[in-house]
Amino acid sequence: MKKCDSGPRADNRGILDPARLRREVRFRRRLPAAALLPYVEHYWLIDWDLDEPFEQRVLPHPTVNLVFRRDPADGPASGSAEVAGVGRELFRITLAGTGRVSGVQFRPGGFRPFWPRPVAELTGERRPLPAGLVGGRHPCDGTDDERAATLDALLLAWHPRPASLPAFPSAAGVPATGLPAADPPTAEAMALAGEIRADRSVLRVDDLARRHGTTTRRLQRLFLDHVGVGPKWVIRRYRIQEAIEHAAGGGSVDWAAVAADLGYADQAHLIREFAAETGLTPAAYARSLDRPAGSSLSHPR
Known about the structure:
CATH class of the largest domain: Mainly Beta
Strand content: 15-25%
Structural class: alpha+beta
């Protein structure tokens, strides 16, 4: 793991049952090389050896991911690679048998310097990419440190290509002569998306536009080009993830107060939005969690 002042993000936002995930599989995060930190949130590594299939549910962040998968039983020639655009809907995946996944989660807006087209073109899509990428080593091979090093090498060698060609290095690779530059619009989009995530008072796009002396129309174009979704969607996704954290926390929750705090019209509006995003009411979601015995919950239906 790379040495740095702080480790990878440790919260569980977006993972709808993190306790069960960690019980069923080995899930870890690693930081990228220092030069990649402006673009990449973290690497995520999952290994499993299951007697029974396991379904994991994730409410995606407004981020692009690279996903590399391999079943060790299939031999060194196996493996897949894909770029996953921002997912608008609840993502479900069933893991079975044995396997490994190594992933790259970019920061919101951080994938744009690596991609020659508006990121919105990837939204809701998963596009296959070549599996043999860097020095013959698949990103799922080796120890955690070796897997992270392979991902570092891949990204450090990546340069955007013309729109008619895949924006991914071939197996021969591209000399690691430096990262693509984060132009001012990319830096702005990343900063604004980060502000939405960190500042719970950001509840409306027009307020964000006024705060930064710009227009909602310009923010919409900027976010679609660099993040892949509009700023209103980013605000709603981060706020519903906060509501999910409240539901998962146990104990009594004042949902009317939470609704007001997160910018919903009322408690009923929040619960409808919660159900639309997760497929469950807060109460049903809380009951679905893998919890230690004795946890107490009090949620609206």
